[in-house]
């Protein structure tokens, strides 16, 4: 698997400080929790704990296309209106909101979990209708992940984003111009992965279970011997 | 002072009364009795020399007996904030482990404990933490923060502070002890090495409690907090209707009574123990935690001094 998350130390801080190593573990957990693995190509975290400064840069993958009705639901024309039959419920709340905004609440009738009937509109119009923007949702999730990674005390932020990347510099002090320059210079260089032997120090190790000595003294009459 | 040991009994509710009677006969103290369906969980203290008698009875009752070394203490587990970054994983695990070791733990989330320059502890939080016997501060992962900045949170606290953090360090400034390996982590502690760390922490807390016990033993109060607990429970009828699982929490130098201060402080002050009124041998004050009552026993020398002063005034 290609490594996506890189944590690097800036300034005078130690390169493989415990905090740097565990930041990678925290970032991995945040990514798994929010299912961001596919959407983000690369995540770089730059830390200078002495300033203090925490910068997160995410390079997004190719943008997800807007979801149209024809891709999401099965449409059937019947005498009482058009029946919208869905296969999965992921975007059902978005779909109903869009339909109700467009046609009005009384014209959109949800029969059951899987089926909705719309009495006014043409099949062609309905097919081309955009019901959700997965890209926007993904960016929201990404920002949530970034907030989970940076320390909670770093409330002053500087955000810069374009179509395919997001950079957030966070600190507890006002952000200085030279920090922004330093972070940008550091981001131009290729990422430096943490050596596996360093990362091994903070990874959880699962040992074979054994009875701990203090539990051996428990008075339990049913234990053999 | 007689050495007492704490134990938890887990077993059938049937015949658990025999254990309660034995503990009372031995001069021990029962801290908590929980009966859920047919299962009984009893936390109690007995003198060291009588432990064998208790073990024999527990064997007869076919129950399980575990040692709980931190029993009779109240511990504050402090987190820099109440956000998702710090809670719930490390804090809940630590609090639960200390609870299993017999301590009563309270979790405290600070309002402004985050950051380096901006971290601070306000007076109310300080007073609240100082009501406990020992405080455990659960801090973060960066060595620089722990060594250079975070000590400002606990420097002025008058009780022993055990600091928990990520990096391997021998000690951090102004703390009684430092336990490494549990910082800001995004998962529950499940593996043996992680539980070993919790064990290390429990031992450090135990050492801190021993230090405080030694300090108290130099000029001990007239009665033990455990005896005071029993007396309060017997004298105040309303405690039976109190919703808290432990309405009277023993501490090393007093008790916390979970009843409203305004109504019950004067009732507590009038309780007579060993020829003394409680207000003569203890400070009864309003707790920062809700509106509870905090009873802190005075050292015997101070009680004697005040007694002498009173007699002098009368003469």
Question: Could you please describe the fold and organization of this structure?
Answer:
The complex is a heterodimer of chains A (225) and B (315). By secondary structure, chain A is of the alpha+beta class. Chain A folds into two domains: 5-63 and 135-199, no CATH class; 67-132. Helix content of chain A is 33%, strand content 27%. Chain A has eight helices and eleven strands. In chain A, strand 1, helix 1 (18-33) and strand 2 form a beta-alpha-beta unit. Chain B is 36% helix and 24% strand. Chain B has three domains: 4-67, ACT domain (Alpha-Beta Plaits), CATH 3.30.70; 74-216, Response regulator (Rossmann fold, 3-Layer(aba) Sandwich), CATH 3.40.50; 225-314. Chain B is α/β, with parallel strands linked by helices and 315 residues long.
Summarize the structure.
The complex is a heterodimer of chains A (225) and B (315). Chain A has 225 residues and is an alpha+beta fold.
Question: Number of DSSP helices of chain A?
Answer: 8
In quaternary terms, these chains amount to heterodimer
Q: In the CATH classification, which architecture of the largest domain in chain B applies?
A: 3-Layer(aba) Sandwich
Beta-strand segment tally of chain B: 15
Distance between the termini of chain A: 50 Å
Whole-number tally of structural domains of chain A: 2
DSSP strand content of chain B: 15-25%
Biggest interchain interface, per-side counts: A-B, 35 and 38 residues
Arrangement of strands in the largest sheet of chain B: 6-5-7-8-9
Strand order in space, largest sheet of chain A: 1-2-3-11-10
């Amino acid at each position: 698997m290609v490594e996506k998350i890189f944590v690097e130390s800036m300034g005078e801080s130690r390169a493989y400080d415990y905090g740097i190593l565990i930041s990678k573990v925290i970032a991995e957990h945040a990514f798994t929790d929010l299912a961001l693995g596919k959407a983000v190509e690369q995540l770089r975290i730059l830390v200078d704990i002495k300033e203090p400064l925490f910068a997160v840069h995410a390079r997004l993958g190719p943008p997800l296309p807007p979801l149209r009705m024809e891709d999401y639901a099965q449409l059937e024309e019947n005498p009482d209106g058009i029946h919208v039959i869905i296969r999965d419920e992921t975007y059902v709340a978005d779909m109903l909101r869009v339909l109700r905004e467009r046609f009005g609440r009384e014209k959109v009738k949800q029969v059951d979990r899987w089926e909705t009937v719309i009495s006014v509109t043409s099949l062609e119009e309905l097919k081309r209708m955009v019901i959700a923007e997965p890209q926007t949702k993904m960016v929201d999730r990404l920002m949530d992940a970034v907030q989970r990674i940076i320390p909670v005390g770093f409330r002053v932020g500087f955000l810069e984003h374009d179509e395919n990347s997001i950079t957030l510099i966070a600190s507890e002090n006002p952000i200085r111009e030279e920090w922004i320059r330093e972070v940008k210079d550091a981001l131009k260089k290729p990422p430096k992965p943490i050596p596996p032997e360093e990362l091994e120090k903070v990874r959880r190790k699962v040992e074979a279970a054994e009875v701990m000595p203090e539990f051996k003294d428990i008075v339990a009459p049913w234990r053999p011997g | 002072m007689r050495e007492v040991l704490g134990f938890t009994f887990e077993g059938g509710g049937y015949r658990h009364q025999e254990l309660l009677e034995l503990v009372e006969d031995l001069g021990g103290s029962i801290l908590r009795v929980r009966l859920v369906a047919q299962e009984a969980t009893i936390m109690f203290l007995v003198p060291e020399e009588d432990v064998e008698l208790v073990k024999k009875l527990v064997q007869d009752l076919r129950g399980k007996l575990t040692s709980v070394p931190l029993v009779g203490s109240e511990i504050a587990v402090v987190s820099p904030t109440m956000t998702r970054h710090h809670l719930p994983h490390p804090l809940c695990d630590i609090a639960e482990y200390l609870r299993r070791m017999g301590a009563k733990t309270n979790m405290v989330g600070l309002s402004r404990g985050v950051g380096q320059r901006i971290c601070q502890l306000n007076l109310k939080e300080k007073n609240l933490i100082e009501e406990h016997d020992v405080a455990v501060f659960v801090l973060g992962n960066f060595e620089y923060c722990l060594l250079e900045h975070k000590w400002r949170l606990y420097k002025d606290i008058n009780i022993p502070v055990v600091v928990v953090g990520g990096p391997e360090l021998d000690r951090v400034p102004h703390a009684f002890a430092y336990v490494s390996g549990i910082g800001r982590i995004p998962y529950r502690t499940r593996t043996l090495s992680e539980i070993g760390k919790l064990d290390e922490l429990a031992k450090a807390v135990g050492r801190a409690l021993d230090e405080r016990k030694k300090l108290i033993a130099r000029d001990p109060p007239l009665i033990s907090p455990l005896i005071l607990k029993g007396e309060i429970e017997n004298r105040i009828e309303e405690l039976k209707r109190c919703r808290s699982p432990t309405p009277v929490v023993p501490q090393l130098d007093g008790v916390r009574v979970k009843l409203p201060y305004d109504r019950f402080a004067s009732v507590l002050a009038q309780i007579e123990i060993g020829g003394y009124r409680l207000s003569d041998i203890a400070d009864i004050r309003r707790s920062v935690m809700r509106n509870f009552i905090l009873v802190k026993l005075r050292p015997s020398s101070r009680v004697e001094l005040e007694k002498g002063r009173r007699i002098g005034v009368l003469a």
